[in-house]
Amino acid sequence: MPLNHEYIGREYPASATYEVGREHIRRFADAIGDPNPVYTDPEAARALGHPDVLAPPTFLTVLNFRFALEGPIVDPGLGLDYSRVVHGEQRFDHHRPVRAGDVLSVVSRIEDIKDAGRNELISMAAEVTDADGAPVATIRSTIVSRGTAARKDA
Amino acid sequence: MPRYDDVEVGTELPAQAFPITRLDLVRYCGASGDFNIIHWNERVAKAVGLPDVIAHGMYTMAVAGRVVTDWVGDAGAVESYGVRFSRPVVVPDDDAGALLTVTGTVEDKLDGGRVSVALTAHVGEDKVLSRARAVVRLG
Fold first, then answer.
1. What CATH number does the domain containing A98 carry?
2. Sequence-distant (≥ 6) Cβ neighbours of residue A14 within 8 angstroms
């Protein structure tokens, strides 16, 4: 079953803010095996001009899972079968580094749905802003819905 | 941090090799919140047609990015980082796991003291990331 292309442009604002904590950053940095002190030592971060420890460049992926139950992937109207989904591409554009103490808001948007052979590609963009409403990051991802493209020869 | 003026197109970043074991994937499940069963359960991974448990694409992306952040030191200098996931990283249930090898090369000098770095990431002969690029701001 092809996806519902009427969902292109639909937005999904997260229902709550996400507070970035030092200990979650530490746990994430540990999990990726990265000993960089800018993630764990506030003094090291300040020495580089940052107000607190930074999050690693891909840390914001945690937002996907914090708000997984309210995003496009589980929206029944989109018609995505999660067992057919493969992660195709991922990109982070940081307008400033994410750091401990940030209180983040996120709005995800379905940018495009298009066919690629027998598959469909869903492009999504999430805008992340801080407590002042200032832009923090744009997260772009493309996921592949395997085998759901409309049959051209039907 | 490397100085912009000292860096040329073609400058190579120190290459690194990262072993990835099942334990690493379990830790990443907990830290990221991504508990997709194919990242820790061989029975389910094989049932959906995979050769074995596979690493999270986001884990591979994070580890590969260390070639950039280790080079610049200040992870806050990374303005953008993007990849395409070209092949899964299969992680066997043994003590060695999979070995991810990552290289980085400066491919462009941009305005504002920024450079674009192209990364490669392989497990054996398999290219597991493609179009992997980071833009970093140098001193």
1. 3.10.129.10
2. A63, A66, A67, A70, A105, A106, A107, A108
Domain boundaries, position A102: 10-20+56-145
Which of B59, B73, B76 is closest, CB to CB, to A32?
Answer: B59
Exposure of B26 in the CB half-sphere (CA atoms within 13 A) = 8
Q: B83 lies in which domain range?
A: 4-137
Residue range B72-97, pLDDT digits in tens: 999 999 999 999 999 999 999 998 99
Residues of A in contact with B28 (CB under 8 A): 31-32
Contacts of A94 in chain B (CB under 8 A): 78-80
How much is the ipTM here? Answer: 0.96
User: Where residue B89 sits, what CATH number does that domain have?
Assistant: 3.10.129.10
Type of residue at A40: T
